[in-house]
């Protein structure tokens, strides 16, 4: 079987595609807020940006990444599960930025503006997103969009 025919590989590539698009959404909203109305609140701007991207991610994940695991009767459970996992992901995503800014003190005037912005970008969109992505991939597969056919097979075998 070719890699592109493997459902796990296809799902992972779709997950990465959706994540890449949502990464762009996050950056656009984050910097739009951070350089306009939320200059003094970069962590809050990043939390808002991640929340907006999460809504976009839900729609794309349900319709594109996990389309083969959509059960109409499980839709409410999937919505609740997706947003619970995503809320945890947002906290994981934002934690490195918070630590960089407020624990390590990597903000202006303690450091130069350029260093602050580099630290913000590395800690939030890079490190935070990587940590949250790994968590979301695991949690979405495990709890939100599980492989129902395998679970049903186990139940049938046990009965």
TrEMBL record:
What GO CC terms are in its UniProt record? plasma membrane
Instruction: Give the source's domain of life in one word.
Output: Bacteria
**One Pfam family of this protein, by short name?**
GtrA_DPMS_TM
Instruction: Describe its membrane topology.
Output: Multi-pass membrane protein
- Record's InterPro entries? GtrA_CellWall_Glycosyl, GtrA_DPMS_TM
Q: Where in the cell is it found?
A: Membrane
Q: Does the keyword Transmembrane helix apply?
A: yes
GO biological process, alphabetically ordered: polysaccharide biosynthetic process
Q: Which UniProt keywords apply?
A: Membrane, Transmembrane, Transmembrane helix
GtrA/DPMS transmembrane domain residues: 14-145
* Membrane-spanning ranges: 12-31, 43-60, 80-99, 119-140
Protein family per UniProt: Belongs to the GtrA family.
Q: This protein is called what?
A: GtrA/DPMS transmembrane domain-containing protein
Q: Which organism is it from?
A: Glutamicibacter soli
Q: What is the lineage of its organism?
A: Bacteria, Bacillati, Actinomycetota, Actinomycetes, Micrococcales
